[in-house]
């Protein structure tokens, strides 16, 4: 196995200590924030050491190549984007605190997603539709490393997809901005230029995310092992189950516990450093 170490500031002393801990025979620089410890033995002590040092780690098969995969599926809010879009919409309505509290409880798995979305959307009743464009123009920010990750994945031949429990107003624009291949999300009901506080059609929640990914995967003729899924909340778990490699990005503990790898310190470009 290879041990990939990533962090915003990596000390040489930590690399040497980790190399000794896992009996690695060589330390290879990937970037200033990523190093590969080659021929490493898996040691449980690595997790505690990296947590103390503020480092991300991953034991990776040295034969794994990014070009082995055919599709990457990403959650949108707090994953591809550095915001929770519905929380920012709520700020326009003066109910951000109430909506954000429900969002956090949902991401921890304390509330079923569909019910959570209905509760949060109901609080937006009467908001001018124009406020959605203001949120996109003024609040939307990509997560660090997002564009670099996508550029590398596209060059390796992967199709790209955003699957969100949020809304198409944002996923459609993000898809265009980043030239993604697929996008799926929920739809606001709008009447006379204002949000009604309702969601149109079936809600894409945890189960829906998994179903959408499986459908696209099968359409592309890919095996589960050829898919990477990236998410941060409990409603991403079904989507991540449909992928061969799942990555918890700055995620809740319930997601990290079930993911193949976790990134808690570096940006999304940390994903591409996991593969040769």
Structural class: alpha/beta
- Contiguous runs where pLDDT drops below 50 for at least 5 residues: none
Count up the helices: 12
Instruction: Write the CATH homologous superfamily of the largest domain.
Output: HAD superfamily/HAD-like
- The arrangement of helices and strands along the chain is EHEEHEEHHHHHHEHEEHEHEHE
**Helix fraction by DSSP (H/I, runs of at least 4):** 25-40%
Average pLDDT, rounded to a whole number, is 96
Q: Within the CATH hierarchy, at the fold level, what is the topology of the largest domain?
A: Rossmann fold
CATH architecture identity of the largest domain: 3-Layer(aba) Sandwich
Strand portion, in percent?
Answer: 15-25%
- Spatial order of strands in the largest sheet: 8-7-6-5-9-10-11
End-to-end Cα distance, whole Å, is 12 Å
Give the biggest beta sheet: 7 strands, mixed
Query: How many structural domains?
Result: 2
Shape: elongated
The top-level CATH class of the largest domain is Alpha Beta
Radius of gyration computed on alpha carbons: 20 Å
Structure characterization notes:
This protein is an alpha/beta fold and about 280 residues long. The protein folds into 2 domains: about 1-65, Alpha-Beta Plaits, CATH 3.30.70; about 70-275, HAD superfamily/HAD-like (Rossmann fold, 3-Layer(aba) Sandwich). It contains 12 helices and 11 strands. It has helices at about 10-20, 45-55, 75-80, 85-95, 95-105, 115-120, 130-140, 145-155, 170-180, 205-220, 235-240, 255; strands spanning about 1-5, 25-30, 35-40, 55-60, 70-75, 160-165, 180-190, 195-200, 225-230, 245-250, 260-265. α4 (about 85-95) packs across α7 (about 130-140) and α5 packs antiparallel against α6 (about 115-120). The longest helix has 14 residues, at about 205-220. Keywords: Amino-acid biosynthesis, Hydrolase, Magnesium, Metal-binding, Serine biosynthesis. Pathway: Amino-acid biosynthesis; L-serine biosynthesis; L-serine from 3-phospho-D-glycerate: step 3/3. It comes from Nitrosospira multiformis.
């Amino acid at each position: 196995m290879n041990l990939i170490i990533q962090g915003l500031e990596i000390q040489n002393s930590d690399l040497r200590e980790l190399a000794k801990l896992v009996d690695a025979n060589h330390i290879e620089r990937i970037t200033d924030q990523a190093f590969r410890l080659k021929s490493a033995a898996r040691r449980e002590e690595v997790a505690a050491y990296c947590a103390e040092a503020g480092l991300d780690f991953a034991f990776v098969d040295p034969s794994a190549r990014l070009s082995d995969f055919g599709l990457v599926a990403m959650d949108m809010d707090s994953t591809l984007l550095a915001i929770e879009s519905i929380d920012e919409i709520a700020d326009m309505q003066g109910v951000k605190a109430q909506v954000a509290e429900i969002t956090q409880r949902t991401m921890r798995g304390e509330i079923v997603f569909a019910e959570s979305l209905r509760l949060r959307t109901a609080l937006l009743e009467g908001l001018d539709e124009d406020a959605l464009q203001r949120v996109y123009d003024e609040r939307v920010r990509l997560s660090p490393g997002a564009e670099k990750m996508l550029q590398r994945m596209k060059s390796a031949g992967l199709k790209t997809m955003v699957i969100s429990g949020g809304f198409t107003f944002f996923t459609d624009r993000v898809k265009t901005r980043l030239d993604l291949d697929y996008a799926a999300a929920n739809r606001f009901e709008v009447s006379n230029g204002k949000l009604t506080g309702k969601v149109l059609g079936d809600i894409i929640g945890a189960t829906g995310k998994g179903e959408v990914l499986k459908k696209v995967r099968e359409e592309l003729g890919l095996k589960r092992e050829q898919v990477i899924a990236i998410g941060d909340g409990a409603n991403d778990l079904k989507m991540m189950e449909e992928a061969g490699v799942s990555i918890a990005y700055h995620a809740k503990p319930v997601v990290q516990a079930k993911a193949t790898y976790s990134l808690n310190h570096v940006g999304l470009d940390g994903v591409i450093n996991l593969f040769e």
